[in-house]
Specification:
The protein has a 6-stranded parallel beta sheet with strand order 7-6-5-8-9-10. Strand 6, helix 7 and strand 7 form a beta-alpha-beta unit. The protein contains 13 helices and 10 strands. The longest helix is centred in the last third of the chain and has 48 residues. It is of the alpha/beta class.
Length: 399
């Protein structure tokens, strides 16, 4: 069985998503303990949390999968694969057509592969999904002039601050999301841009690219009070800015705009008590909706590509299903060949002269027979002839 657990921006706001993600982690651990799950891929971004699991022992009727929290989507089979294809194509993103999800899915697969919990089935599905994402982008305009969560945050800032020209901006986080924010800000004629990151040299690298200034993380308060705009996008598991920290700076924050695009959130809502105007990922929905309308006509073409690629994957799965049968059949025939060859050689008078000839002969016979058999097994797989496949499997299974 292929199983998918997920929560995303479509069914939960940022506050709910943080809590549901923790519930999902716990549910996965319970399933892992009960079924000894060894094949899975975990995807975690600012807008979603998902587990893809392959395990033949899990039953859909298991009480663990009748989860009380209806915001956790639990899905099975073919619909999971199509969902993944849609996701890598950018159709499931808040910012439709954004390119970052393709890299995030690829990174998740590589991480699972490196940690040895991405097996043959999930490897095939994710490899195909990444391919589909690239094909959709090459053959449609789904990502033409694409914006990201980072650039959407900058657009949101301009809606509230007007032109960012001559403004002072502090970017917290120099990871992938922080770089997207910085890229969007680079096009503005800013007065100053400061970059803070827990690993200082990473902040230095990004600041240099922007002709900005790197900031030590423990000096955040000093730069927050002089900024017009703060955009935060770290991977911290807890708040890095709150009312208490800001109060220690003795700054005036009534004209300060903060945009938090991290998940979990970086900025506690209590900063609003100091006059800060705080926005988070949920506030990007209006910009996201406008972006979706612009790309609506590309959806049908993208869906057609997804359907075609899905059919091709289903065909390849039929062959994957019989590969083990063919491998076992080959081993079984090889054992017979070796046993009968040994018997024949033992009866020869001149063993050394004839052993190699007999070994080559029997090997050639098996190869010819095996070629025809494996060809017919693959044909049976294409034709969904389950009865024939099971019969062959039974005949040559280890006794």
């Amino acid at each position: 069985m292929i199983l998918n657990l997920r929560v995303d921006h479509k069914i939960a706001n940022i506050d709910a998503m943080e809590n549901i993600a923790k519930e999902m982690d716990q549910l996965f651990l319970e399933l892992q303990e009960k079924y000894s799950i060894v094949e899975y891929v975990e995807i975690s971004t600012c807008n979603r949390k998902e587990y893809y699991i392959h395990n033949d022992n899990i039953e859909a009727s298991d009480s663990l999968l009748s989860h009380e929290n209806k915001s956790i989507i639990i899905d099975y089979g073919d619909s999971i694969i199509k969902h993944l294809f849609r996701m890598t194509s950018g159709l499931e993103s808040m910012i439709v057509g954004e390119d970052q999800i393709l890299g995030q899915v690829s990174d998740a697969k590589q991480k699972a592969f490196k940690e040895r919990h991405c097996g043959k089935i999930l490897d095939s599905i994710f490899t195909k999904a990444i391919h589909v994402g690239r094909v959709v982008r090459n053959k449609t305009n789904i990502n033409k002039g694409s914006i990201s969560i980072g650039s959407a945050a900058v657009d949101l800032a301009e809606k509230h601050l007007g032109n960012l020209e001559n403004k002072s901006v502090l970017v917290i986080g120099a990871g992938k999301m922080g770089k997207l924010v910085a890229k969007a800000l680079a096009e503005k004629n800013l007065n100053a841009i400061f970059v803070a990151n827990r690993t200082y040299y990473v902040a230095v690298e990004l600041a240099n690219d922007l002709n900005g200034h790197a900031v030590l993380f423990n000096e955040l308060g000093k730069y927050v009070q002089t900024a017009d705009l703060v955009i935060s996008a770290t991977g911290a598991p807890h708040y890095i800015l709150n009312k208490e920290r800001l109060e220690k700076t003795d700054g005036d924050f009534k004209d300060l705009l903060m945009i938090d695009i991290a998940n979990p959130r970086d900025i506690c809502e209590d900063v609003c008590e100091l006059g800060v105007k705080l926005f988070n990922i949920d506030d990007l929905r209006e910009i996201a909706d406008e972006n979706t309308k612009l790309r609506k006509k590309e959806f049908a073409e993208a869906e057609n590509i997804i359907d075609e690629e899905f059919s091709l994957l289903k065909e390849s799965f039929k062959l994957i299903g019989v590969e083990d049968i063919i491998a076992n059949l080959r081993v079984s025939m090889e054992k017979i060949r070796e046993r009968e060859t040994e018997k024949a050689i033992a009866k020869l008078s001149d063993v050394d002269a004839n052993a190699k000839i007999i070994d080559n002969l029997t090997n050639s016979i098996v190869n010819k027979i095996f070629f025809d058999i494996s060809k017919k097994i693959k044909q049976a797989a294409h034709e969904n002839d389950e009865e024939l496949i099971r019969a062959i499997e039974f005949m040559f299974e280890e006794k």
